[in-house]
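Long-time lurker, first post.

We've been arguing in lab meeting about whether adenosine-5'-triphosphate would sit comfortably in this protein at all. Half the group thinks yes, half thinks no, and nobody has a model to point at. So I'm putting the question to the forum: if I give you the sequence and the SMILES, can you give me back a predicted structure of the complex? Inputs are below. Any interpretation is welcome too.
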Amino acid sequence: MGMTRTLLECSLSDKLCVIQEKQYEVIIVPTFLVTIFLILLGVILWLFIREQRTQQQRPGPRDIAPVPPSRDLSWEAAGRGGNVALPLKETSVENFLGATPALAKLQVPREQLSEVLEQICNGSYGPILRANMNTGDASKPKSVILKALKEPAGLHEVQDFLGRIQFHQYLGKHKNLVQLEGCCTEQLPLYMVLEDVAHGDLLNFLWTCRRDVMTMDGLLYDLTEKQVYHIGKQVLLALEFLQDKHLFHGDVAARNILIQSDLTAKLCGLGLAYEVYTRGAISSTQTIPLKWLAPERLLLKPAGIRADVWSFGILLYEMVTLGAPPYPEVPPASILQHLQKRKIMKRPSSCTRTMYGIMKSCWCWREAGRPSPRELRLRLEVAIKTADDKAVLQVPELVVPELYAAVAGIRVESLFYNYSML
Ligand SMILES: Nc1ncnc2c1ncn2[C@@H]1O[C@H](COP(=O)(O)OP(=O)(O)OP(=O)(O)O)[C@@H](O)[C@H]1O
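Top reply:
Settle the argument with this. Predicted structure of the protein with adenosine-5'-triphosphate, as tokens:
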């Protein structure tokens, strides 16, 4: 309309009018074209982004995480590290017991557990307690260890705990593994009942051997080279037992060996072995002090029983030094770089060449170059024959647990037990 009126109002000789008409062509047509172009560009961009998003959401081969083999799918579905914790109020423990009738045979009536004597420490599931269990004869209560599940616990924690009890049951009896006596899982709090290995862990025993303590409850706080081999041999028997079941321990260290007055050694700390059993692989939920780990573990590669053999070499070092932290000059976080330079620990002054030779065979970088637990045990049995049974191992310096924890790369709370009570 505006254009028509303009044309009508101007004569042919009117130059201004022609210019005005050209201005309309110059402004409107390009603006229109640019707008169309922008709209088209916007639509194309939108379609492109939408397609990208759909591809990201669609599971493709590169997105599938490898699923480790598992023997217990119901447990796997709940996920040990998953975040599906339901308050116990919403579900009942009886439901889980219904799903695990095998535990019925293991039940210890709660009234048989008469009194809690002491709390030993806080374990991975909760408090570890020493209690008396009635045996029927009131004059002869039996001391047992209760591993309690801390409260409040989530659904997956309860399943994990019950699974752990079943794992003990699956393992069966071995004189060098801590024995399951039963469980209390019909109501809260949940307990795993274990035999009491009264003298506690080997690390505390070794530290006590540094003191001027002669004897306590029948245990002699003297250690000879022969006894080191004797304890080592029992640990290897436990490892052979695990290997026969296609398992490995994953945390062989003095802190995970319990000791009786006759120097019977029992491997405990089976948390990682349980993880291998349920998941077929070690996941990152367990934190193991780095200085005990074989290179393949530090490099997060698949590991097996020969990684335990590496740790066994460190255990020999612990015993012969009466509980010194390994690699005292290396910060825990630098241990991998240290080993990558093919450096191993030097022979401690208290260690014979024969024993050091055995340690070195455990610390072969290549897994295949290390002996099997059985081969190692046979070597120990030969060494025992000529080992010194007279000279008592002596280290004059007492251990400061906080210092030890820092050098060894261990949480100090996981260490205190007998030693602090002496
Ligand atoms: N049967 C037992 N007899 C005596 N002391 C024990 C017994 N079991 C555990 N302890 C004490 O409790 C400490 C922790 O034990 P353990 O490593 O088995 O517990 P945890 O934290 O539940 O580990 P994991 O889950 O790996 O088994 C031991 O070092 C030891 O001092």
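For your lab meeting: The longest strand covers residues 113-122. Strands lie at 113-122, 127-133, 142-148, 180-184, 191-195, 215-216, 219-220, 257-259, 265-267. Whichever side wins, do check it experimentally.
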